[in-house]
Amino acid sequence: MSVLWGGNIVSIRIGVDSVPPLWSAFWRMLVGTAVVTAWAWKSGAAIWPAREEWRHLLILGALFTGQIGLLNSGSAFTSPAFGVVILNSYAVFANIAGHFFLPELETPLTRVRVAGLVIALVGITVLALGQTASTLAPKPLLGNSLLVISALLLGIRQIFTRWLVQRVEPVKTVIWQMAWSVPLFFLIALASEPMVYGESASTQAIVAIAYQGFVVAGICFIVWAELLKKHSAGTLSMFGFLVPITGIGLSTILFDERITVPLVVGSLLALIGVWIVTRSDTAPASPEELE
Questions:
Q1: Of the candidates 67, 57, 41, the residue with the CA atom closest to the CA atom of residue 167
Q2: Quick one: which of 245, 259, 273, 265 has its CA closest to 126?
């Protein structure tokens, strides 16, 4: 599962080469929503929100749309190896947001955890500023900056989701954050990006977007839900560190991306810091948090 998630940002980079970022996100979420909704309906899960749940699910959908939109847009300007580490450092921002806005559900920030946050933030800074322009990363500073903001929104969304699932069935949060994003992405893409027709989209882009929608947004969530029935959350969370490692590996294989000093130093600092911060947490990130 972690290997499949690690391929997500690589597939996004492939897709945005011929399909604009927001249109790519629209098609991805359209497919993902259909897959997860069909699974939830077949399993008998409650899907339709109660009247008092609509507002909170709309807020979640807006956060989700902004975060994924920035992820796709940033991925068009930077390389997957740098992007996957920056995005998966979202736990730094989740811990900061949780400390101030949801202290009753989050682990307190001890001196050791604060030190971890500082180390991770230094690593993120090295990654954001240490990449040089290339064919794969035409505007690395812009792309990495957008991904840092995406990681920030992802951390905030994780905290908001943890609060929301105390009041709403978890499956509803997964379905409706994607469902709300479909019309939002359609309208924003229609107003800001050219539409891509027929042969304008490469076969590689179509396959990549199908992978993001069917596998990452759809199948990964379903399998994750089943795994949580058989294994502890703490056990599963240990595999989360495979995501950035897989992303870096796939980028070197598929794009021939070089392993540079800033990438190694920044990744080590970010991942060590995240490990220090999250080592006492018991709740693993869910598939939509790793998107």
A1: 57
A2: 265
Return d(Cα 81, Cα 245) in angstroms, integer. 9
pLDDT tens-place string over residues 22-68: 999 999 999 999 999 999 999 898 899 999 999 999 999 999 999 99
Measured CA to CA, the distance from residue 276 to residue 114 in angstroms comes to 9
Q: How many degrees, rounded to 5, is the angle at CA 182 between CA 177 and CA 58?
A: 35
What is the reported pLDDT for 149? 98
Are the CB atoms for 254 and 10 separated by under 8 Å? yes
Instruction: For residue 269, give both structure tokens.
Output: 């600092």
Give the model confidence (pLDDT) of 89-129 as tens digits: 998 998 898 888 888 766 788 899 899 999 999 999 999 99
Backbone angles phi, psi at 74, to 5 degrees: -65, -35
Q: How far apart are CA 234 and CA 213, in angstroms?
A: 27
Q: How far apart are CA 33 and CA 207, in angstroms?
A: 17
pLDDT band at residue 238, thresholds of 50, 70 and 90? Answer: low
Range of the structural domain that residue 253 is part of: 2-290
Question: CA gyration radius for the chain?
Answer: 18
Q: How many domains are contained in the chain?
A: 1
Q: How far is the C-alpha of 16 from the C-alpha of 22, rounded, in Å? A: 9
Q: What is the CA angle 200-202-203, rounded to 5?
A: 140
